Input
Amino acid sequence: MFRNQYDTDVTTWSPAGRLFQVEYAMEAVKQGSAAIGLRSKTHVVLACVNKSNSELSSHQKKIFKVDDHIGVAIAGLTADGRVLSRYMRSECINYGYTYESPLPVGRLVVQLADKAQVCTQRSWKRPYGVGLLVAGLDESGAHLYYNCPSGNYFEYQAFAIGSRSQAAKTYLERKFEKFTESSRDDLIKDALFAIRETLQGEKLTSSVCTVAVVGVGEAFSILDQATVQGLINEFEVSGEEGGAAAAVAGGGGGAAEEGGAAVEQEAAPMDI
Amino acid sequence: MPKEHANWSPYDNNGGTCVAIAGADYCVIAADTRLSTGYSILTREYSKICKLADKSFMASSGFQADVKALQKVLSSRHLIYQHQHNKQMSCPAMAQLLSNTLYYKRFFPYYAFNVLGGLDSEGKGCVFTYDAVGSYERVGYSAQGSGATLITPFLDNQLKSPSPLLLPAKDAVTPLSEAEAIDLVKTCFSSATERDIYTGDSVEIIILNAKGVRHESEPLRKD
Output
């Protein structure tokens, strides 16, 4: 990305019809460590890479419980993510107080998107520098949404954000068709495989990743380290590759350039 | 000019009685299930007890619309607490929150007479008793509501709770076994039912101890 004269203010358009500050905010999401989400008909799983700065410090919290039926994984400026999680929790509590029923996920996501949009149209504000994967269950089923700093949101069967997320996305693209009918445990396994792709050869252990599940009859909860390590040990012992890790390694190298390639595209990334 | 009195009141009294007894390692919270207005019965099967947290139960008599609103406010505040602290509120913490919530409406009070029962952080039974505007005290046992004046002297006689004026200060817990306490509560309600027209139908009893929560129900006179 090049510095230019139209990128100082979020309220300044470029001649090509782009808001560079918003695009730079989306870059912040790409710099954050990876977070992935996938859903079946009855469950949604969130997983993220949790690496601490040094051995002395604790891990950054990237997955938050918003309500019994909704959870969120973030990538990017985690402080912004924490503030947005607090907003989401507040909205869920207020809705529950007024209507004595859980806030539908689609409603929450729209409110979040509108909140993000405000920051793209005020000269005294800056866009939130965090991408959110919102996982939730409501009357219409299991949902996974991605909320961007631009104020856009999309629903996904499976998605990955953050650094080296392309490797996970490639894995998910190959496997997503069978997710709808997947069992809860298979879904968690696929989430761990996807996380492993983003680690690019590094060893997958429960100390570098966090996994959370929400499902029919199961409130949103973050799995404890022992359970996650147990699941990892299971598939490492059986030698499962999650579908030829070797094939991914070749594709992963080419995809690393996708961040830089966005600048040359005609359409601004946030319109896609 | 003599003052004119309002012919409408924002409050109503739905009657009923609530009792709680604290033990060394348990707590019993009980309330009758009759909901009334004036001299009529609205329903015989209404629960006046609300679970606020894993170890805090509140029984409230008075105006049940205000009680329901109060329960909702406290439940929402507990959710916020859990998000911020990653754990449940302790009973003494909930007791303070209830007091503050009641006093917040000092000039248009919740018409609710509450008894909060639960286990403190050491696992000992605790009971807190309130007035309508939040004045509260930790005690070994308490009764509130229309039958309170009939039950309290009986409990004083049976449990000899140390008066707060007695020195040295004693532990606010009664030396009774769990089964004895439950039996005592049932006796309280069947006696109160005899003479208080607003108490009866059945008594709902919650027993809280280290093993968890238990429910018991006993029928009472329906007249």
In short: Chain A has a mean pLDDT of 87. Helices of chain A lie at 20-31, 78-99, 105-118, 165-175, 184-199, 225-237, 245-255, 258-261.
